[in-house]
Amino acid sequence: MIPYAQIDTIFLDHGNTLVSIDFDWVASELEARRVVCAPDALRRAEAAARPEYSQRLFVDGVSEGTDLFSAYLLAMFNKLDMTACLPVPDLETLVAELKIVLRPDGRSSVLWRSVMPRVPDALAKLRDLGVTLAVVSNSDGTVERSLETAGLRSYLSVVIDSALAGYEKPDPRIFGRALEACGAQPDRTLHVGDLYHADVAGARGAGLHAVLLDPFDDWAVTDCERVPDLWAVANLLEVARTTTH
Q: Residue 170: is the preceding peptide bond cis (ω within 30°)?
C-alpha cells in the first residue's frame, strides 16, 4: 500500500503522463497515405501497445540506442483494429515514412505536444497540497522545451531528462538525481508513469513508491497500484490527507 498521506514529493513521467502524442496529426498523416483511421482509434491502440512495448524495451534488452521510434509506431499500429482503417496498410512501409515525417529533426517535442485531460488541474491541486513536483523522463533532450510549450513547466521544481542526465529509467541513478535535486526522501516520494518496467520497477529499485497509469486496464500486472490518470493520483492524495487530519 502506498502511504499517500505521507507523500510529499511526486516524480512524473513526461509522455502519456503529462502530454500525449498529437493523435490528430498522426491521423492526418495516415489519411494522406490513404489510411483512414480515427484519432480515438489510434489513442486506444497506443495504450494497448504499452505492455508489449515495455516488455520488449526493458526486459528483452532492446536499448534506447536502437530505432526505438519505429518499434513504438509498429507496436501501436499492430494494435489497431484494421476494420477501422481502409485500405489495410503495409505497416513496415508506413512506419518507415512516418518516422521521418513525425520527427522531422529526429526529436520528439513536436509530436508529443497534446496536454492530457485534467493534467493542469491535477498539477494545480498537487501544488496546492504542498507536494513538490518533478519530471523524470527517458527522452532526447527536449523535455524542458516541451513542458514550456505546453504551459506546464511552472508547476515543476525539477526536470530530469535522461539524455542530459546520462542514464535512463529503470536505472536507479536517474531517480537518485531527481531525489537529490528535490531534497526528497525516497520513502516519501511517489513516481507516476505509464510503463511498468521503466517506471514502476525503476522507481522501486531506487526505493520509491510507484503507481502505473493504465487508462484502459491493459496491464496484466497485479503487484502495483494502477490508476487511469494523474487526476486520480491527485484525488488519492487529497483524500488521504483529509482523512488523517
A: yes
